[in-house]
Amino acid sequence: MKRFVVLALALIACAPATMRSLEAFVERKPDPILDQAAHKAPVEWWYLNAHLEISSGTRGIAAAIFQVYIPDSAPYNLAQQFPNALFFGHYSIVNKQIGTYQSTEYSTVPRAKPEVAVKEGFADTTRMNVGLGDWRMTRENSGIYTAKFSLKGREAIDLQLRPLRKEAIHGPGWSGNLETGRMYYYSATRLEISGTYNGEKVGGIAWLDHQWGGSDIGTDGSASFAPRWDWMSMNLEDGRDIMIYRVRNAKGGISDKFASISYPDGTTKEERNIEMTPWDWWVSPSGGKYPTRWYLKLEDGTVLNVKPVVDAQEVEARATAGFNYYEGAIEITGSTRGKGYMELTGYTPMKNPFANPFSFVEPAK
User: Fold this and answer.
1) DSSP string computed for 64-106
2) Which of 271, 318, 321, 363 is in the most buried spot, having the most CB atoms within 10 Å?
3) Euclidean distance between CA atoms 261 and 242, whole angstroms
4) What element of type H or E holds 244?
5) Who contacts 158 (Cβ-Cβ below 8 Å, separation ≥6)?
6) Handedness of CA 334, 186, 219, 231 (dihedral sign)
7) pLDDT at 70
8) Sign of CA dihedral 276, 294, 311, 331
9) How confident is the model at residue 359 (pLDDT cuts 50, 70, 90)?
10) Of 77, 10, 4, 3, which Cα lies nearest the Cα of 321?
11) CA distances from 67 to 7, 36, 70, 234 (A)
12) In contact, 27 and 204? CB cutoff 8 Å
């Protein structure tokens, strides 16, 4: 859901210009065709997770490209210094057989730290066609999505993703509420994979998200300035695809809780009377204590038990987002079985972009 991401990210990694007339949030349902291209919103992202089946076993991958604009209210005249959209992104891969996990991050921020810096980022305004360095995500006229990512030349994917059902528009057309802030949100929840992984033919199932907004930051700001959400996507063997999340507020309470259920016939149902209870945690080397095992219960009594395929699936994102977060492949048991992905934010320290927005870049020579 990826959520409703961070204007904090935007403040550092991003850029608009004065008098840009960034897109304001209005209550409406997005259209997966008409809204597939880039918007002039403060923050927008295209996100993919996939479970790859290859002859040597299975891999889980997660990838995202963010387009962000620095708001005019940012300190140090950042909006005037960086008047155009900037881009950053993350890519991670887990080997489910041996438990290894790798991630990398890219950024087009001027003077970004050398290990993450790339020269080019773009997002087409006529169709879904976004790129960052050698990474690329598109939606073709046929309705097929494509994705090309690698870990700086390693663990390379070149995928074609065919929707097995129509895209799901979540809830009223957005995630969040007036307290957390709202972001337009739709997903291609079940995509059939073809293509290659490291040159080898691959199959499997994938999930793609598109979210944008940021002007509607809410009263708590947890969706924009201090991200604190627990989010999961799930493809179940009984045919249901589920997006479920909760957002924690600054006082430790729950500001929003929501599930969106997509069915094989293309219909989507929303639920709010749901249970999301963590029961075990994993502590990362960076000090993040993540709730990685969960008990979920839906309104119809469906019980889902969630655990990661391996515990260690923390994305290193401090050079682009200012904090690390959890992005990991999961297994689902209970009333039915399935596979999915879990994203957990707000469990590691975050640099304050208002205090020192230049802490994300290399000093000028």
Assistant:
1) EEEEE---TT-GGGHHHHS-S-EEEEEEEEEETTT--EEEEEE
2) 321
3) 5
4) strand 241-248
5) 147, 148, 195, 196
6) positive
7) 79
8) negative
9) low
10) 10
11) 11, 14, 10, 26
12) no
Percentage of the residues of the chain whose pLDDT score is greater than 90: 72
| 33-50 per-position pLDDT tens digit | 999 999 999 899 999 999
CB-based contact 47:147 (threshold 8 Å): no
pLDDT greater than 80 at residue 259: yes
Q: What contacts 36, CB < 8 A, 6 or more positions away?
A: 127, 128, 139, 210
Residue 324 dihedral angles phi and psi, to the nearest 5°: -90, 160
CA distance 18 to 20: 5
Domain definitions of the chain by residue range: 7-20+35-211+219-360
* Residue with the larger pLDDT of the pair 72 and 362: 72
CATH number (3.30.70.260, 2.40.370.10, 3.90.1150.30, 3.40.50.300) of 7-20+35-211+219-360 reads 2.40.370.10
63 or 74: whose pLDDT is higher? 63
Q: CA nearest 60: which of 327, 275, 335?
A: 327
Q: Residue 308: pLDDT above 90?
A: yes
**Rounded to an integer, what is the distance from CA 289 to the centroid of its chain?**
20
Asked whether the whole model's pTM tops 0.70, one would answer: yes
Residue that the structure tokens 């990661």 belong to? 308
Q: In this predicted model, which residue has the larger pLDDT, 75 or 223?
A: 75
Q: Tokens 């620095």 correspond to what residue?
A: 70
Structure confidence at residue 144 (pLDDT): 98
What residues have CB less than 8 Å from 190, skipping those under 6 apart? 163, 164, 165, 205, 207, 235, 241, 262
User: What is the model's pLDDT at position 77?
Assistant: 75
Gap between the Cα atoms of 50 and 204, Å rounded: 7
Backbone angles phi, psi at 49, to 5 degrees: -125, 155
Nearest-angstrom CA–CA distance, 317 and 84: 22
Are 9 and 320 in contact by the 8 Å Cβ rule? The answer is: yes
For the chain, the residue count is 365
Residue 331, CB half-sphere, CA atoms under 13 Å: how many?
A: 9
